[in-house]
Amino acid sequence: MPLSHFEELGLLSLCGQVDLKFVNFFYGTNPGSWKSRFPYNRLLFILESDGASTFGDGIRSCRAERGSWFLLPPFQEITHDHNETMLHLSIHFRLTVCGGFELLSGRHAFFCGRDPVLVNGVISEIREKDALRLASGLCAWCWTVLHRVMPQVSSSAVPALYANPAYAELFDFFWKHATAATRVGDMAAFLRMAPESFVKKFTRDTGISPGKFLNRIVAAHAMTMLSGDRRSIKEIAAALEFCNEFYFSRFFRRESGMSPREFRKRFLPAAFPEFPRP
């Protein structure tokens, strides 16, 4: 058989366009009942649990048993009912193609499975507290789970995006620069298109409107700021160019399902907890 580079699939170029970037990590317990809707993916490994905690999406509810994992796609509302026994590692990440299109964004249900061997490996690496090993483990665990669920993921939008290299520049620019003051007309101007034609084409190619796309970017930046630094909510609202804190809070609640203050209280990291030794 002659050697092949999978040219017919455009594999090498596509691999250069697929990007996994971590947003944050949360390790510990987070008891309570609430709803969440984040603009990025969340992969949770259940390290300890009495099996009473659950995740739900309005259609089904699954128990969080020790050794199980949950992959929560972006923009999907999740109902949490967690007790103090549910020790978990939550990995927040973006999985994009062509500069900024979320590969799992069209999914309307979460993924879950049980793999005690994989979860025991997660526990072992956390106990070691070796930063480089843990970093490589985080990448490997994400890709392991993603490879398992890919047969269930519709990637029908990817060919249309990949066929237009201008999308990569568009996504990259607005991911870096979008704020509450950014308008759909700015995106149309970036591609030198009339606004109406741009809206129709973008919605057809991606499955979402450009306005919703911009909102998702701003919400993602807001969540990163709220969980990653100590600026006040008023300062974050100003940095994202909202006219005041009230409009920022209303926007954030609509996009995430909770207020900025509630989000910060729940997700601003505390000190690194010790994993219980056997």
Automatic annotation (TrEMBL):
InterPro entries assigned to the protein according to its UniProt record, in alphabetical order: Homeodomain-like_sf, HTH_AraC
Coiled-coil zones: none
Record's keyword terms, sorted: DNA-binding, Transcription, Transcription regulation
Every HTH araC/xylS-type domain range: 168-266
Transmembrane portions of the chain: none
SMART domains with a match to the protein in the record: HTH_ARAC
A Pfam family recorded for this sequence: HTH_18
GO MF annotation list: DNA-binding transcription factor activity; sequence-specific DNA binding
PANTHER family to which the protein is assigned, alphabetical: ARAC-FAMILY TRANSCRIPTIONAL REGULATOR, HTH-TYPE TRANSCRIPTIONAL REGULATOR EXSA
Annotated protein name in UniProt: Helix-turn-helix transcriptional regulator
